[in-house]
Amino acid sequence: MTTGVLLTPDRSAQHVVDDAVAQASLAHDIGVRHVWLGQQLDLDAVAVAGMIGAMVPGLAVGTSVVPINPRHPLILAAAAQTAQSASRGRFSLGVGLGVAMLEEWAFAIPTDHAAARLREYLTVLRAVRDTGTVEFRGRHVTAVDPQVMPVALPSAAPYPIYVAAMGPRTLQVTGELADGTLPYAGPRTLEEFIVPTIGKAAADAGRPAPRVFGLVSVAVTGSSARDAEQARTVATETMAMYDQVPSYQRINAREGVDSVVDLALIGSEEHVARGLARYVDAGATDLLLMPIQTGRDELRRVCELAAGIPSAGADL
Questions:
Q1: Domains of the chain with CATH codes
Q2: Integer angstrom CA distances of residue 309 from 5, 15, 252
Q3: Of 77, 142, 257, 309, which sees the most CB atoms within 10 A?
Q4: How far apart are CA 54 and CA 42, in angstroms?
Q5: Which helix (H) or strand (E) holds 82?
Q6: What angle do CA 53, 311, 166 make, to 5 degrees?
Q7: Burial class (CB in 10 A: 0-12, 13-18, 19+), 108
């Protein structure tokens, strides 16, 4: 099992990539062995992950997650191979379908037939990764190796592909074609739905048991009720949009909570650790801690918690 930490580079920093590397170095010095970056429109997560991997030797890096719709799978495969080479074989590619409202508004990309589109996209990524070539013509994606311009780096080791899958159809595709899932879901949903669904899909396809990451928003605040309340206020403000997304609404219903904020673990290190243990008991093979609050002190506390979890230093 690994326990990774999601980094949030300071966009106000004069050199934001330097800030990301500094955060990664801090995490590594504390004992964290895997860091992750989310994709936004102002900073490319795969590129930053590759730079961190090159500049902080021994630290594994990953994306959680890169939306697949705005970029062709051959372009993403090239970026992933670059990051894999830069990080000396310690890169993990996490992808997702993105939030439909944003995809349609920002890119004017239709978001129907999501599972079918994901299947074709993963088929191309796996072909490039596993065979070094591709010739695929689907309904949603076409990718053909032109031969005169190779699509694969011969020296790049295979990298794992994870999908932020939470629905039955996307979990089916993920179990068949990817290496695991990065769902933002609570322990009840993991145990009763996600783990058995993706596990059966992988088994039926004759593939190894997939990794299931427990993604958890956390704030280690100590014993002060005021500090915990402040962290919850931050979480409420930053996570409010997710309650408007149908996939997260279904997760809330499964978990019996009113908001995704109710799934956040906020409080003392002992309180948060007990909450994380529920994810492991529910079948999570790995954990990914997402700090609610920004700032070096807050990041340090989350990293110290992550580094102290048994087997947290294992490599992906």
A1: 3-308 (3.20.20.30)
A2: 12, 32, 27
A3: 77
A4: 21
A5: helix 73-86
A6: 75
A7: exposed
DSSP E strands, 169-210? 180-181
Tokens encoding 65: 């997650």
User: What is d(CA 299, CA 292) in angstroms, rounded to the nearest whole number?
Assistant: 9
Under DSSP, the state recorded for 313 is B
Q: State which amino acid sits at residue 309.
A: I
Question: Which residues neighbour 178 within 8 Å (Cβ) at sequence distance 6 or greater?
Answer: 122, 161, 162, 163, 165, 210
Q: Name the residue among 152, 110, 100, 155 with its Cα closest to residue 129.
A: 152
Amino acid (1-letter code) at residue 306: A
Q: Are 78 and 143 in contact (CB under 8 A)?
A: no
pLDDT, one tens digit per residue, over 121-180 is 999 999 999 999 999 999 999 999 998 999 999 988 999 999 999 999 999 999 999 999
